[in-house]
Amino acid sequence: MKKSRRAQPPLKVVAGQPSWRIASRSVEAFVTRLGGHLAPVTFDRGGRKIRPFSVAPWAEEPPDRSLPAIIRALRGDFFCLPFGGNETPVGGEKHPVHGETANARWKLESLESAAGRSSLHLSLRTRIRKGRVDKTISVADGENAVYSRHLVTGMSGRMNFGHHAMLRFPDRPGSGIISTSPFVRGQVFPGQFEKPEEGGYSTLLAGAEFASLEKVPNVYGGTTDVTRYPSRRGFEDLVMVVADDRLPFAWTAVAFPRERFVWFSLKDPEVLRSTVFWISNGGRHYAPWSGRHVNVMGLEEVTANFHYGLAESTRANPLSRRGCATCATLRADVPLDVRTIMAVVSVPPGFDRVASIEAEGPASVRLTAASGRGVSARVDLGFLMGGEIIG
């Protein structure tokens, strides 16, 4: 039996941020020290080199120290605790946007490799609400997947949280087709997401409810298909769908038919209840966005009341009154264990919108398109429920 190999990897500046590297034969990923942002990530290293995550266009510009750390590092996926803007203090707590986990400096604990698997372990001692968060990013040979685990310990009280994955789409209208597992509620952000007087613009109807992502009400009296993207250049919008928590796992997927691959994420819907769609297509004209953050969509797996923050998520709200959990009650002696899997898979010609993702044994899932075409991908579903990664 091979022994695990521990290493102390040096920091490397990648897209303007000191970052740690983790890699398998299939995947190479970087995690920033500032905020713990995951990107760039290269899938299928031995073949096509697919890089689906976005990196902010200002990443390599001289850093503007007046900007929050999260904006300076903005890229890929990061863990939010609490999730959202957090403008309203709660019990003396005033958190930065998306929490310390997305803004503070993480500490390297270890990089371990054994039996074709590698794991990067980082930690963060939180100060605003005292506790500890352990981040573990893992990859395995033969799998085009990234396993992300965040273990929250020593923290008490109500808390909302989530992941903030962001994809960059090819610069063609409708180049990507978005779909999700069945959801029980869909709604446009009920507040004013952007303010024209500040240089921000939105096009979806605030607060509108919908049963299909293909028919989301807009401000012009019609509906918009948000599953086809890029679209609506010049606007920023936010919608959220609440997953059916009776499912064994929930999924979000983006098919890129011309590029012949699918990006997908998997989660436990009892832990991460909803998916927030941040549709960012040049609708922010204030710095540093300046109309240049285009063709990006955040597909953010959360337990939260949209992106409001701690106060609005932990107090009674319209979602919680309808039985949709927007926070969890933490106990210092019971860890909160949040896990996601993000992966890509190559698809055959004719594979269009993902219609379903189903288990195909303990180490594989089957993706089926609306066209009927199908493909299998190696992933360890047991990881979502607390199991270990299968090599």
Description:
This protein has 391 residues and is mainly beta. Helices cover 4% and strands 42% of the residues. The protein has a single domain (5-385), classed as Beta-galactosidase, Chain A, domain 5 (Distorted Sandwich), CATH 2.70.98.10. The chain has a ten-stranded antiparallel beta sheet with strand order 1-7-8-9-10-26-22-21-14-19, with no helix packed on it. Strands 6, 12, 13, 15, 16, 20, 23 and 24 form an eight-stranded antiparallel beta sheet that branches. Strand 17 (216-217) and strand 18 form a beta hairpin. The relative contact order is 0.15.
Judged by helices, strands and strand pairing, the structural class is mainly beta
Question: Uncertain regions: pLDDT < 50 for 5+ in a row?
Answer: none
How many E strands?
Answer: 29
| Count of all domains | 1
| Residue share in β-strands | 35-45%
N-to-C CA distance: 14 Å
CA radius of gyration is 20 Å
Helix content: under 10%
Major β-sheet, in short? Answer: 10 strands, antiparallel
Which CATH C-level class is it? Mainly Beta
Shape: globular
Task: Please name the CATH topology.
Answer: Beta-galactosidase, Chain A, domain 5
What is the arithmetic mean of pLDDT?
A: 95
Give me the number of helical elements. Answer: 3
Q: In CATH terms, what is the architecture?
A: Distorted Sandwich
Strand order of the largest sheet: 1-7-8-9-10-26-22-21-14-19
